Amino acid sequence: KPVVLWFRRDLRLNDNPALYHAVATGRPILPVFILDRDPDRPAGAASLWWLDKSLRALDDSLRERGSRLILRRGDSLTQLQSLIEDTGADALFMNRLFEPAAFARDAEIAHELKSAGVDCRGFNGSLLARPGAVLNGSDAPYKVFTPFMKALLATAEPPPPTTAPRRIATPDAVQTESIDDWRLHPTRSDWSKGFDWTPGEAGADAALSDFLARGLKTYAKGRDHPALPTTSRLSPHLHWGEISPWRAAQRARGAADAGAVPAGEADKFVAELGWRDFSAHLLHHFPTITDRAFRPEYESMPWRGDPEGLEAWKRGRTGYPLVDAGMRQLWTTGWMHNRVRMVVASFLVKHLLIDWREGEAWFWDTLVDADLASNVQNWQWVAGSGADAAPYFRIFNPITQGEKFDATGGYVRRWVPELRRLPDRWLPSPWTAPPEVLRDAGVRLGKHYPHPILDHAQARARALDALKTVTGRD
Ligand code: FAD
C-alpha cells in the first residue's frame, strides 16, 4: 500500500526527514501538495509568487526520479481523505508546521486519520530544534535570545544529512490539478518584474554556495551594510523549506573548519539562524503575539491613524532617503536588507507613531520571505513590545543610520535614483543641502523627490511622549 507524503513548507528532496522515512518503508510514494487556506494567516501575494515557482521546481525534481507532484486544492483533511480513498494508502508522512493553528490542525488531521487506521508520522524538517525541546531550568520557554541559543546549541543534535533518493516510485493515474489553474503568479498587473530569485532547492543551494564563497568571510560586520552582497538571501528558501537550516549551518561551519573563513563569522551566521528558531519557538509558545503585544502594557500605546503617512511609507515617499530606498527595494524585489528593515519599521512605529500591525501586514503581503513568526517577532522587537525587544526609547535615526551604514550612498542611489547625483554628504538628508548643491544635482525637493513628511527631532519627542502612557513615567 502506498504512503502519502504531504509536502507543505519543506519543498526539497535532500535532508527531508519525512521523505527519507517514507522512502525507507520501501513502499510506493504519493507526494502531494494541497493548496489550502493557511489556518494561521492566508499567504501574502509575494509568497504565492514564490510558491508557484517552488512547486514547479519540486515537480521537476520529482519527475527526474520517476515520480511527480500531485496537486490538490481545498480543505486539507478532506483532500487527504479522498487521496487515501482513491489510492488505498494507509500511511501519511509529513514535516510538522509549528505555527499555533497549523499545529493544532495537523493534530486534528492525525487524530481523524489514525482513527480510520492510517499511520501518521510527523517530523521536524524546518527548525534547528523542535519547539518544546529547548526549555529553561523550570521547563518554561525562554524569553531572551542569548540563553535560548546557548541551550539550543548545547542540546539540539544536527540530523545526519540525507541525499535525495535516486528513484521515487509513484503509482500512475492519480488525479491531480494543474498548477497553471491556480494562478499564483500575478495576472492582472505583474508587479513581480523586478523579482530576481530562483525559487526551488537548486536555487537555495546556489544561494548558499555563493554566500559561502563571497559573503561569509566578512559577514559579522558586512551584514549591516545594505549596499554590500554580504548576507545569504536564504530567507525565502528557508521559509519554504528548500534548504534545511542545519544544512546551512553545517556548511558555514564546514567552511570555517576548512580554514576558508574565520570561525567567528560562521558563528554569527548560525546565531542569525538561531533568531529564526527563537521566533518560531516564541510564536509556538505564545500564540497571541501575532496580533497582541507580548508585553501587554504596550497595548495602551496611543497609535495615530495616519493614512497619508502610511501610504507615503509604503510607496517609499517619506523624504527620508534610507527609508524610501528600503521600501522601494521591498516593492521591487520582494525583499529588504535586515538593517533597513529595522530602520523602516522604527520609522513607522516611532516617527509616524503608526501601529506596528499595519507595517507587519504590509511586509506580510510584499515579502517573498514573509514568515509569521519572524515577521511578528521582529516587528515587536522594533516596537519595544516583544519578548527580547529593543527598548522603545532607542529610536533609530534614519539620517545617521544612512551616514553609518550607507556611507558612500550605494544603496540609496540604487533605489532612489532621483538623488543619485547628490554628493554623499547630503544624501541621507537632502533637505539640508544648500540650494546650489541641489540644483547641480538636478534635484528639486517637492518635485523630483518629496520634502521630509515629518521633522526627525519633533517626531522623536512625540514618540517618547507617547511612551509615557505605557511606562506611566514622566
Ligand atoms: P542572513 O543575514 O543571511 O541570515 C541568515 C538567515 O537567518 C536568514 O535567512 C533568516 O532565516 C535568519 N535570520 C536572520 N536575521 C533574522 C532575524 N532578525 N529574525 C529571524 N530570522 C533571522 N525574516 C524572515 O525570514 N521573514 C520575515 O517575515 C521577516 N520579517 C522581518 C521584519 C522586520 C521588521 C525585521 C527587522 C526583520 C525581519 N526578518 C524577517 C528578519 C531578517 O530581516 C531577514 O531574515 C533577513 O534580512 C533575511 O536576509 P538573509 O537571508 O540575507 O539573512
Automatic annotation (TrEMBL):
What keyword terms does UniProt attach to this protein?
Chromophore, FAD, Flavoprotein, Lyase
Q: Which reaction does it catalyse?
A: cyclobutadipyrimidine (in DNA) = 2 pyrimidine residues (in DNA)
Cofactor annotation comment? Binds 1 FAD per subunit.
Q: Which GO terms describe its cellular component?
A: cytoplasm
Q: Which cofactor does it need?
A: (6R)-5,10-methylene-5,6,7,8-tetrahydrofolate; FAD
Q: Under which main EC class is this enzyme filed?
A: lyase
Where is the site Electron transfer via tryptophanyl radical?
W303, W356, W379
List positions binding FAD.
Answer: Y219, T231, S232, R233, L234, S235, F269, D369, A370, D371
Q: Where is the Photolyase/cryptochrome alpha/beta domain?
A: 1-128
**GO MF terms, alphabetically ordered:** deoxyribodipyrimidine photo-lyase activity; DNA binding; FAD binding
The Gene Ontology biological process terms listed for this entry are: circadian regulation of gene expression; entrainment of circadian clock by photoperiod; photoreactive repair
E.C. code: 4.1.99.3
Q: Which InterPro entries match?
A: Crypto/Photolyase_FAD-like_sf (IPR036134), Crypto/Photolyase_N_sf (IPR036155), Cryptochr/Photolyase_FAD-bd (IPR005101), Cryptochrome/DNA_photolyase_1 (IPR002081), DNA_photolyase_1_CS_C (IPR018394), DNA_photolyase_N (IPR006050), Rossmann-like_a/b/a_fold (IPR014729)
The family annotation for this protein states: Belongs to the DNA photolyase family.
Name of the featured protein: Deoxyribodipyrimidine photo-lyase
The species is: Brevundimonas mediterranea
